[in-house]
Design goal:
Blueprint lengths: L2 H10 L7 H12 L4 H11 L3 H10 L11 E6 L2 H5 L2 H12 L7 E2 L2 E5 L5 E6 L11 E3 L2 E3 L7 H6 L5 H10 L2
Parallel strand pairs: 1-4
Antiparallel strand pairs: 1-5, 2-3, 3-4, 5-6
The structure holds FE2/S2 (inorganic) cluster (FES).
FE2/S2 (inorganic) cluster binds next to α5.
């Protein structure tokens, strides 16, 4: 986002350093992520050191520093979900969506985006829904008692289609 765009957002919040979060949220809402250019422009407009802005942007897991898919699938890797098979759910998800661990990572965050940018897979520590473990969240909606068989049904709600099913079965031995 250019400086004019940033200034528009800043004026909306009559900005001081305490409103930094609101500004970053608005930029992400508009652009889908926080680009390096946007963060540099925020630094320049607000007079806040870039390092401080980066530390805020990387502290909160809901900020993305790279473009993400249209749908965000978050697998809970908290203790309850881990014990109930979260890792197997994550592996099945990677297989279905055709993303490989380490394909796209940022700032130590686990984050995989499909080539068509339809889905981004990431992980979190706990959604507070441990009684339904293992749990995933898609675009903010919680799904409990998830397993490899349920995943295609869930993904279909978000446009994962027949072609994808065929492609993923082709990859299996
Ligand atoms: S550990 Fe997964 S929802 Fe709490």
């Amino acid at each position: 986002m250019d400086k004019q765009g940033i200034i528009k957002i800043v004026e909306k919040y009559k900005c001081d350093a305490g409103k930094l979060l609101n500004v970053l949220e608005d930029i992400q809402k508009e652009e889908g992520y926080l680009s390096e250019v946007s963060l540099k422009n925020v630094s320049s407009v607000l007079g806040i050191p870039l390092t401080k802005i980066y530390s805020v942007a990387t502290f909160y897991s809901f900020f993305n520093l790279k473009p993400v898919g249209a749908h965000i699938v978050t697998v809970c890797m908290g203790t309850a979900c881990h014990v109930k098979g979260a890792f197997q759910v994550l592996e099945a998800l990677e297989d279905l969506l055709g993303v490989k661990p380490g394909e796209t990572t940022e700032d130590g965050k686990f984050m995989l985006t499909t080539k068509d940018r339809k889905f981004t897979v990431n992980t979190a520590r706990c959604f507070g829904a441990c009684s339904m473990a293992p749990v995933i969240m898609v675009d903010g909606k919680i799904y409990g008692y998830v397993n490899a068989k349920k995943l295609p049904l869930i993904l279909k709600e978000y446009g994962w289609g027949v072609k994808n099913e065929k492609d993923s079965s082709d990859r299996r031995p």
